């Protein structure tokens, strides 16, 4: 990736990390008008960044999160001792004569904080596989797929616009949003030879369709009573589950009030 593209991904990641805090903080300081203003500004900035990545840099299907979180346990640290051992020709592994078990030799043992308990071959294979997955280029998108990804990117803006036109109690913003999401997924389903990250992203978007059961006005009119009844039954009749379901019942009303939890 080029440096400008990396900067766009960084800014997009920052926005996704602070959006809930910005919404709650602005609502507390400036009230509802300030809250909806910051929501529109953040969604507009995210849409612009994503469209630049899609149309200008040909980044393909947008991932969430934009930058893959660093898994420190799976990173291979650089050891000068390992380099010296490999350059001096010393064997880094030992194969048992009777068991054929592969173990690390004492000369190539890393420091205590960076040791792992797998065989060196397994570590190298997993690292090479992860590196190959990370370095796979995005799948090129045709006109139909680019339109579908653009629908997914602009859906939050269209939803906010429909909220402003028809109000928060209307079914039209909910219906518009679900139609856009399903249309985008249907158009992208024709893509073949997706890499692993892109397949994972499309599965994530499909699962997130369940959020429409928790989004108003569907939640207010149909889901709320049934979900609370189910959680109450689990808390009363399944031992140990109440430690999770009772706080969840108390949290749902607060969760419902945060736009970025629901629609972001």
UniProtKB/TrEMBL annotation:
* A biological process from GO: peroxisome organization
GO CC terms, sorted: peroxisomal membrane
Q: Where in the cell is it found?
A: Peroxisome membrane
Keywords from UniProt, A to Z, are:
Peroxisome, Peroxisome biogenesis
Cite the record's Basic and acidic residues compositional bias ranges. Answer: 122-133
Q: Which InterPro entries does the record cross-reference, listed alphabetically?
A: Pex16 (IPR013919)
Coiled-coil regions in this chain? none
Region named Disordered: 74-141
Q: Per its UniProt record, what Pfam families does this chain match?
A: Pex16 (PF08610)
Q: Which family does it belong to?
A: Belongs to the peroxin-16 family.
Put simply, this protein is called Peroxisomal membrane protein PEX16
């Amino acid at each position: 990736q080029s440096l400008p593209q990396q900067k766009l991904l960084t800014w997009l990641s920052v926005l996704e990390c602070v959006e809930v805090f910005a919404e709650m903080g602005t609502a507390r300081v400036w009230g509802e008008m300030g809250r909806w203003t910051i929501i529109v500004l953040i969604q507009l900035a995210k849409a612009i960044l994503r469209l630049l990545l899609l149309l200008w840099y040909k980044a393909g299907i947008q991932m969430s999160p934009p930058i893959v979180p660093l898994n420190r346990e799976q990173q291979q640290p650089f050891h000068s001792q390992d380099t010296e051992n490999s350059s001096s020709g010393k064997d880094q592994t030992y194969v048992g004569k009777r068991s054929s078990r592969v173990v690390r030799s004492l000369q190539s043992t890393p420091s205590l904080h960076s040791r792992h308990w797998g065989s060196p071959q397994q570590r190298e294979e997993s690292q090479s596989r992860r590196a190959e997955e990370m370095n796979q280029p995005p799948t090129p998108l045709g006109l139909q797929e680019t339109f579908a990804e653009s629908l997914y990117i602009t859906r939050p803006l269209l939803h906010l616009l429909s909220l402003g036109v028809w109000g928060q109690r209307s079914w039209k913003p909910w219906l518009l949003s679900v139609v856009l999401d399903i249309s985008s997924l249907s158009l992208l389903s024709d893509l073949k030879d997706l890499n692993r990250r892109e397949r994972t992203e499309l599965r994530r978007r499909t699962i997130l369709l369940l959020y429409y059961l928790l989004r108003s006005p569907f939640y207010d009119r149909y889901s709320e009573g049934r979900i609370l009844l189910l959680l109450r039954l689990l808390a009363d009749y399944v031992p140990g589950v109440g430690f999770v379901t009772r706080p969840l019942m108390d949290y749902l009303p607060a969760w419902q009030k945060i736009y970025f939890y629901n629609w972001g």
